[in-house]
Design goal:
- The protein is an alpha/beta fold and about 210 residues long.
- It has 6 helices and 7 strands, in the order E-H-E-H-H-E-H-E-E-E-H-E-H.
- It has a single domain, classed as Flavodoxin domain (Rossmann fold, 3-Layer(aba) Sandwich).
- Helix 1 runs parallel beside helix 6 and helix 2 packs across helix 3.
- The relative contact order is 0.18.
């Protein structure tokens, strides 16, 4: 059993999001000692660009064509990321909210991996996700309160987007811990951070892999 930890915070050890995720992973590892956990720090890797020959290759393959020689290398780099994603059984995304949504590095990664023919197919009956039966956990931190009863809820484009885009790939078993609000006062921040860590431990204890 393999889990990929996708880290979308540039703050390293100072990241509040990652401190919550560490509680989840530590507890999960105690429950499943044979679980392999691998990290992908999106601010420490150079993701391939999705343009030029890569885009040409994408549309050529979608049309059932053959790749031109100059497109093969760039497409292989893209498809390697997609296939690597598919090789995991479960995922943890650690993701602070930036401007009501996800950090640009996570959006870039999603644009790289979310390729027709690898993570999903277009069929006569609609989209068919090719990453079904996988589990995903998302741990986020938000400066404000975007919960359902908050007047800021309408500005939460983070959780709905992640559910929608990975639903395209067939991943619907997605659990969220949204630590919020985190930027009001120091006391409120510490209280909500502590609560989120407790939720992370509980989520790991109840996780079935």
């Amino acid at each position: 059993m393999k889990l990929l930890h996708i880290m979308a915070s540039p703050r390293g050890e100072k990241s509040r999001t990652l401190t919550i995720s560490n509680e989840f992973l530590t507890t999960l590892k105690l429950k499943y000692p044979n679980l392999t956990i691998e990290e992908l720090d999106l601010f420490q890797v150079k993701l391939p660009e999705v343009y030029g020959n890569t885009v040409d290759a994408k549309y050529a393959l979608m049309a059932g064509g053959i790749l031109e020689e100059q497109s093969k290398a760039s497409w292989e780099e893209i498809s390697n990321y997609s296939n690597e994603f598919l090789s995991y059984d479960a995922f943890l995304i650690s993701c602070p909210m930036w401007n009501f949504t996800i950090p640009y590095k996570l959006k870039h990664y999603i644009d790289v991996i979310m390729q027709a023919g690898i993570l999903f197919n277009f069929t006569a009956n609609g989209v068919e996700g090719l990453a079904s039966n996988k589990k995903m956990y998302c741990i986020t931190s938000r400066g404000n309160d975007y919960s359902e009863n908050s007047p800021m809820h309408q500005f939460d484009f983070q959780e709905p987007y992640l559910r929608a885009i990975f639903g395209l790939a067939g991943i619907f078993d997605i659990s969220f811990i949204n630590s919020q609000p985190m930027d009001f006062t120091h006391g409120i921040t510490l209280t909500n951070l502590s609560l989120a860590k407790e939720q992370a431990v509980s989520m790991a204890q109840h996780t079935v892999l």
